[in-house]
Design a protein that fits this description.
It is built from four helices and 15 strands. A hairpin with a 6-residue loop joins strand 7 and strand 8. The chain is of the alpha+beta class and 257 residues long.
């Protein structure tokens, strides 16, 4: 069932989204060679709680940490641990925050120091794909319209979309209907209507689209070991068009429509 939100509820999700964005910016400022992902997670948890938020991922279906941190070939759900970040890494911070009972969700992939040209192209493509999907998030369109827009940007750049992982509705719960794939046909899928709040999140790879779940039950890597990138915004469908509820703060490039 798709849950549509009132204007008041969208404002509450936006408040959670502001804290999500601030958390990504804060943790991103600490990201560099020599730091461990566990140290970054601890910083995220403290930052969120000091601002009266709750790290939504912590304890969600048994997930053990405050946020997901996914380096290099880890597409999503990387569990922060003793991994030491190195120059040239791609590191995704995926943050969910619950504030006053409402949830927002966003992800951003950082390049650490000097990165390979293909890695930079992958990051640029991920952000372009997110922007293309958001542009199609208007009342009267269907999910397939935005899914197709994401797919075309990624595949024209020579990269792949992960087909077994999707975006989702978000707001009162972490994961709501509808599913938001990163591939599809225009004009297909659920109708987008005013009041829907959705997480649009291209998950893309420099190799093929296949992924594998690790023994911890959470970490999902590219099957071929290729680099990956993940960009996500929580977006509201409004009468005025798509509204990004997790706008970037203090990052080199933001995705706006």
């Amino acid at each position: 069932m798709i849950i549509r939100k009132s204007a008041r509820e969208i404002q509450k999700i936006a408040a959670a989204g502001a804290l999500v964005a601030e958390t990504i910016a804060h943790v991103g400022s600490l990201l560099g060679p020599g730091v461990t992902t566990e140290e970054l997670d601890s910083a995220a948890a403290a930052f969120i709680r000091e601002r009266d938020g709750i790290p939504t991922s912590e304890g969600y279906k048994g997930y053990p940490k405050a946020i997901c941190i996914s380096p290099n070939d880890v597409v999503v759900h990387g569990i922060p641990d003793g991994y030491v970040v190195a120059e040239g890494d791609l590191v995704t911070l995926d943050v969910g925050v619950t504030l006053d009972g409402y949830i927002a969700d966003s992800a951003y992939t950082f390049g650490v120091g000097a990165i390979a040209p293909e890695s930079q192209s992958l990051l640029d493509t991920g952000q372009n794909a997110l922007a293309a999907g958001i542009a199609e998030a208007v009342a009267g369109n269907r999910v397939g319209d935005l899914s197709h827009a994401v797919q075309m940007v990624v595949e024209r750049a020579g990269f792949s979309v992960v087909r077994s992982l999707v975006g989702h509705g978000v707001g009162r719960h972490y994961h709501e209907d509808p599913h938001i794939p990163n591939f599809g046909e225009p004009g297909r899928g659920p109708l987008l209507s005013e009041g829907m709040t959705i997480a649009i999140e291209p998950m893309i790879t420099a190799g093929d689209s296949e992924v594998a779940v690790m023994d911890d039950g959470w970490t999902i890597r590219t099957a071929d070991g290729s680099m990956s990138a993940h960009f996500e915004h929580t977006v509201a469908i409004t009468a005025e068009g798509p509204r990004i509820l997790t706008p970037r703060v203090g990052l080199a490039r933001s995705v706006e429509v």
